[in-house]
Write a structure and sequence with these properties.
Glucose Oxidase, domain 1, Enzyme I, Chain A, domain 2, TIM Barrel, 3 domains, globular
């Protein structure tokens, strides 16, 4: 038996082949070729593969989300066969006797620049489409596996760690569990695992060897252990754990449709965190009563250029409509720090967690902010959308955000575009400064949502991404819990509600403390909703205490 010990970051037991994530080299190098006809044949095959993929995507979207979303992929398919685009690629190949990859990249850049330079907003938006189409053809030319997993069966996906942009491209139907050499409980791989409700371990180090790829493995997301060829005793323990896990899942199913309330009548909103419109299915399946955090930055991370107003609008509208009148809190762009996007062309920072990130980028780049706000307000006509600003530290930032909102609303009204004038505005409490001035901030907004991951990081001066800090990164620290209490008291004094959207919200051991503090809402991964509901319905709020706020 081989035991690889890491840190459990998403509970559960899974069995399957170990598969190491392969990062393809997608760098395009110009090469002179002697057989142009062979190169043209390669290009034709890549185009045909692209058409087949786009047709399948359009059909899937039509079934799951309706015609409007399917049209995007049908538009991409038209670009693949567009006479002018194809002619441009051919001219480059013939004129420079070069490889197909170089011709596709150059033609894609030329057409993207041409569309971006047009006066018409609709045509400008096609710039991103042509880039996506060129990238798809390139991927097929270079043998890049769609979904990142070249396997006919589901796998335990192993990697050093996965960047946010990489997690977006994964074929989630082929993933049984995650195991990473690095990372932490706050990494995007861990967050994705909890959203999907599958086991995950991180921090396994060099013991997790690529040489093990293909071997049958068992993973225990509770203990952080990964086993190759477990002995009979260990196998028996794992099988029994899996049996109990399945029993508990069946028991939790009985919680669906039940009210989120304590035995003595204290209600609490149990919402969900999501990263894409596709995650809404998991919210509905797990009976989430709303969405407390839609991480809109994943729309930017998945794109090769700034997503247009229309692209964002369609994504937000899809989520708002799918939630059928339940609140959908959409966080504005929150990149920087551990979430970098190449086309933003950000300067390298020595300490990016403290640098230009989140709302600071939006206020520094008003056109990027305006585009997103227009999409958000347009989507507000199709559901109960709320807008939330991240990384707030000062009252003046909130006022600047509100001014930007007012300007966008005035524009939409002048253009006759419907939107909800009473859209809720909220902020994230995730810095000590926002806690200390929360009495003033509460007068400016409709709600608070506490980002406990960053609040813990900044309060304790501990990097949330550093796995080796161990016990020093302690979200249960009295300082963090006292910050929660201060923000909650100030929110309620101003008559607004307050929630938690950080990972701490799913910590069942802290539910009594959250009830004692007065937290109104918990937004968690979809698979955490039913366990929290079961615990909430056994609780008596008036007996909960603040003992965890005391220093040990």
């Amino acid at each position: 038996m081989i035991l690889i010990q890491g840190k459990g970051v998403s509970k559960g037991v899974a069995k399957g082949p170990l598969y190491f994530f392969q990062r393809p080299d997608t760098t395009v190098v110009k090469q002179v070729v002697s057989d142009l006809e062979a190169e043209k044949a390669r290009l034709a095959a890549a185009q045909a593969a692209s058409m087949e993929q786009l047709s399948a995507l359009a059909e899937k979207c039509r079934e799951e989300a309706g015609d409007e979303t399917a049209i995007l992929f049908e538009t991409h398919a038209m670009f693949v066969e567009d006479e002018d685009f194809v002619e441009c690629m051919m001219d480059i190949m013939e004129g420079e006797s070069c490889n197909a990859e170089y011709a596709v990249e150059q033609a894609g850049q030329q057409f993207a620049e041409m569309f971006a330079a047009m006066d018409d907003a609709y045509m400008q938006a096609r710039s991103a489409d042509i880039k996506d189409v060129a990238r798809r053809i390139l991927d097929n030319l270079m043998g890049v596996v769609a979904g990142g997993i070249d396997s006919d069966v589901p796998v335990i996906l192993a990697a050093d760690d996965l960047a946010p942009s990489e997690t977006l491209q994964l074929d989630k139907s082929k993933i049984l569990a995650f195991a990473t050499q690095g990372g932490s409980g706050n990494s995007h791989t861990a967050i994705l695992a909890r959203t999907m409700g599958i086991p995950a371990i991180c921090g396994a180090g060099d013991a997790l060897k690529e040489a093990y790829s293909g071997r049958e493995a068992y993973i225990d997301g509770e203990t952080g252990a990964l086993y190759l060829e477990p002995d009979d005793v260990t196998l028996g323990v794992l099988i029994e754990k899996k049996r109990k896990q399945d029993e508990m899942k069946a028991l939790l199913e009985t919680m669906k449709g039940k009210e989120d309330v304590t035995l003595d009548g204290r209600k609490m909103m149990l919402y969900c965190n999501i990263g894409s419109p596709e995650d809404v299915t998991s919210v509905i399946d797990n009976d989430g009563q709303g969405i407390g955090l839609f991480r809109s930055e994943f729309l930017y991370l998945a794109a090769s250029d700034y997503p247009s107003e229309e692209e964002q609008f369609q994504a937000y509208k899809k989520v708002a409509a799918a939630m059928n009148g339940k609140r959908v809190v959409i966080r504005t762009l929150d990149i920087g720090a551990d979430k970098q996007v190449d086309y933003f062309d950000m300067k390298k920072e020595e300490n990016p967690a403290m640098g230009v990130r989140a709302i600071r980028i939006c206020l520094n780049r008003p056109e990027v902010f305006r585009t997103q706000l227009r999409a958000l307000y347009r989507a507000s006509a199709y559901g109960k959308v709320a807008i939330m600003f991240p990384m707030i530290t000062s009252v003046w930032e909130v006022k600047e955000c509100k001014r930007a909102c007012a300007k966008v609303m005035a524009e939409l009204e002048a253009e006759g575009i419907p939107f909800n004038k009473d859209t809720e505005i909220g902020i994230m409490i995730e810095t000590p400064s926002s806690v200390f001035v929360s009495d003033q901030l509460a007068k400016e907004v409709d709600f608070f949502s506490v980002g406990t991951n960053d609040l813990t990081q900044y309060t304790l001066a501990c990097d949330r991404q550093a796995n080796d800090l161990g016990k020093f990164f302690d979200p249960h620290h009295p300082a963090v819990l006292r910050a929660l209490k201060m923000a909650t008291d100030n929110a309620h004094k101003a008559g607004i509600w307050i929630g938690i959207c950080g990972e701490l919200g799913a910590d069942i051991s802290l539910l009594p403390t959250f009830l004692a503090i007065g937290i109104d809402e918990l937004s968690v991964s979809p698979t955490s909703v039913l366990p929290l509901r079961a615990e909430l319905r056994k609780s008596i709020a008036k007996t909960c205490t603040l003992e965890k706020l005391e220093l040990n």
